[in-house]
Amino acid sequence: MQSKTVLIVDDQAGIRVLLGEVVAELGCRVLLAKTGAEALQQLAERPDIILLDMNMPGLSGIETLAEVQKQVPGLPVLMITAAEDQGKLAEAKALGAVGCIHKPFDILNFRSTVEQILK
Asked: pTM of whole model > 0.90?
């Protein structure tokens, strides 16, 4: 997995750093963004997967996901959320999200999920 690039998008710095450390331990290159707009700029770096917070100021996770799928159709996007809004989860899935992890989450489960998507 050392040739894989993972873009982590979350408005909370602590979450970005923690997830970045876990992904780096997998041997992946890590890109970080704190907003949906920053994430869209990072698409030029050709990430293999995006880990995307659903609830962010500015462009929401859903809006960012929709734009990602327009620009790079089929790019795997794993949503991350603390909310249990089934409507938003269904919308994310309809837009092509490969799954969703709920905060707070178990780091080992998170790591395993990312590894499975990257394979």
From this structure: yes
